[in-house]
Specification:
With 105 residues, the chain is of the alpha+beta class. Helix content is 32%, strand content 33%. The chain has a single domain (3-98), classed as Frataxin/CyaY (Metal Transport, Frataxin, Chain A, 2-Layer Sandwich), CATH 3.30.920.
């Protein structure tokens, strides 16, 4: 995968996450900063950071539950440790931090 393809796929994933957050009723604030860094703040003040890591060609997630790396497998972004799909994992992590259901899928 070259830089252009990676950036296109990462941009699409971040846009999908941002759209889901805009539609969410949970107490969540978020901001997508330049360079593809999405910062999500929950009602309790905790944060989740989602960003692209161009060198590794991965999307990285930092959450209260830990750090996660997702790599494109040709059809979806997969966790490099357990193979979980990005949107499903984000739904679980965000729901845990928000204390209420948050869906990205």
């Amino acid at each position: 995968m070259d830089d252009k393809e990676f950036n296109g796929l990462a941009d699409a994933a971040l846009a999908r996450i941002e759209a889901a957050l805009e539609a969410c009723d949970a107490d969540i604030d978020f901001e997508l900063a330049a360079g593809g860094v999405l910062e999500i703040e929950f009602g309790d003040g905790s944060k989740m950071i989602i960003n692209r890591h161009a060198v590794a060609r991965e999307i990285w997630v930092a959450a209260r539950a830990g750090g996660f790396h997702f790599r494109w497998d040709g059809s979806v972004w997969r966790d490099t440790r357990d193979g979980g799909e990005l949107m499903e994992k984000l739904s679980a992590l965000a729901s845990q931090q928000a204390g209420e259901p948050v869906r990205f899928a």
